[in-house]
Hints:
single chain, 153 residues, 0% strand, binds ascorbic acid
Amino acid sequence: MKTKVIALAAAAALVAPAAFAQDDFSAQLKARQGQFRIMALNIGVLGGMAQGKIDYDAEAAQIAADSLVAISGVHQGKLWPEGTDEVMLDGTRAKAAIWENFDDFASKWGDFGEQAAAMQAVAGDGLDAVGPALQQLGGTCKACHDEYRAPED
Ligand code: ASC
């Protein structure tokens, strides 16, 4: 009996720090915000070219599009644990509505992936191809932000 109690206490001591580390969710926030920054940097390259602020360069456009496709392939499950919305936590603009409509949220992430792939297919084909693809791609960013991202403070 006594050994069982000691074993249980030892097991609790082992899991407690892990549970505590997870509860602050800072790793998840950093990971998902980092992914959006990578997306913004790469969309910025394509947007800069479309707006004539950067000279069009087929190779650079392709690299940006490839990177967006790579991000779209990161499985999102780990990044959005329940309890990581803007009501529960400081430092995030993720609305609680995400978890009330998680299927829709996931489907919007899928839409981004589809449009990133469409961009990847044409990024090297010149500005006339990049412009319309960017409209579609930006629309998928906006659709999610409109519904699921709280305004800046
Ligand atoms: C970006 C960025 C966004 C989206 C959005 C598209 O580069 O930072 O939030 O594109 O502006 O509508």
